[in-house]
Amino acid sequence: xxxxxxxxxxxxxxxxxxxYDCILLAGFGGPEGxxxxxxxxxxxxxxxxxxxERLEEVSHHYRHFGGVSPINQQNRDLQxxxxxxxxxxxxxxxxxxxxxxxxxxxxxxxxxxxxDGHRRVLVLVTTAFSSYSGCRAYREDLATALxxxxxxGELELxxxxxxxxxxxxxxxxxxxxxxxxxxxxEQGKGERPYVMFAxxxxxxxxxxxxxxxxxxxxxxxxxxxGGEEWHQGGGWYAEQQRAVSALIMDRLADEFPDVPxxxxxxxxxxxxxxxxxxxxxxxxxxxLPADVTGLVVSPVGFVSxxxxxxxxxxxxxxxxxxxxxxxxxxxxxxxxxxxxxxxLIDLVEERHVAAEGDQPRDRVALTGLGPWQDVCPxxxxxxxxxxxxxxxxx
Length: 394
Hints:
Blueprint: H1 8-12, E1 22-27, H2 37-44, H3 52-57, H4 60-64, H5 71-89, E2 95-99, H6 106-115, E3 120-125, H7 132-148, E4 156-159, H8 167-186, E5 193-200, H9 204-208, H10 235-252, E6 261-266, H11 281-286, E7 294-298, H12 307-323, E8 327-330, H13 338-351, E9 376-377, E10 392-393
Parallel strand pairs: 1-2, 1-3, 3-4, 5-6, 5-7, 7-8, 9-10
Function: Involved in coproporphyrin-dependent heme b biosynthesis. Catalyzes the insertion of ferrous iron into coproporphyrin III to form Fe-coproporphyrin III.
Binding site for Fe(2+): 200, 308
Protein name: Coproporphyrin III ferrochelatase
C-alpha cells in the first residue's frame, strides 16, 4: 500500500470540543412521488437555465421507480439509528434532519430546532469525501438557510469532519467487499476476480480544487495491486478515495491476495464537452481483461443505496456486465450498518463534551491522510463563486 504524506495543515486544523444542544443530519433530498420529480430537479439545477423539457429527459430513472427516490427513507432510517445509538450512550442530543433540495429543507429544520430551544448545532453531512458538492455546497446552503430562516446570529452551526478514513466508514466497506468476493467464489466465479470501487464523477476542474490548497497530492503515478497505474489527479477528492480503496484491498489480502482493482466513476451529467473524472464504470467494465471471471462493485463513494446506486449500478452497470457475460456482485453501501452509525457518534464525541472539563473522544483515522480538518480554509473546495459558509476559517 502506498503511503501519501498527510496535508499537515488540514490535520492540524482542529477546534476545541464544546457542548452542543443537538445534531442536524444534513442530506441531499429526493422526490417522493411522480409529481415531485420535476420540481425536485428544478431545485437541483437552479441557476443553470435547464428547461423542463431537458429535466424530463433526465428524469427517467426516478420515473422508473414511481418517482420515489429511496434517499429520504434511508435518511429517516439513519436518523432513527443515530437516535438509538445516542440513547445507548446516554447523550442528551436530539437529532434533526434537513435536506438541500427537498423537504424537509435546511431552513425548516433550523426553525424547528430553534423553536425547541437549541442554539449550538453539530452538523453531520451524509458525504464522506472532500469536494464542492460533498462538503462546501452543504456549508454554503446551511449559511443561506440561516439567513432565510431569519436565524443568522441566533444559531451556531459547526460541521463534523470528513470521515472517509474513519473506522466506522472503512470497516463496513471492508466487510462488504469481502462478502462480495466470497459470493463470487460460491458462484464458481472466484478464480480471477476484479474489484471496482465506484464513486460519483465530478467535473475535473472542481475535483482539482477539492480539499485544502496549501498541500496537494503530488501527481505521481502509483502502481495498484493489479499492476496498473492510477491516473493521478482529482485533487483530494480522488486522492481520499484512492487511499480508502487501497486500504480496503489491503485488509482483504489475508483471504484474497493480489486481486486487481480500480477506482471508477459514475453518474456523469451536464455538458459532454466539459471534462469530468474518468473512467466511467461502464467503459471500465467493457475494458476488463477477457480472463476476468467475476466483478465486485463497491459504491465506496456513497453512504446509502440511493437512486444513483440503484439506477447507475444496479441497472446500467449490471447490464454492461451482462453484455460481457460477466458475473457482477454489487455490494451494499454503509447505510445503517451498526459500525457506521457508531462511528458517526464517535465523530460527534470528538467535538461534543457533556460538561466543561470532560475529555473529547480521540480522533481516529486509518490512512495517512487523516484525521481530516474540523474547519475548512476559505479557499477549500471552491465553487464557481465564493459564498458565505459555516465551519470555515481563514
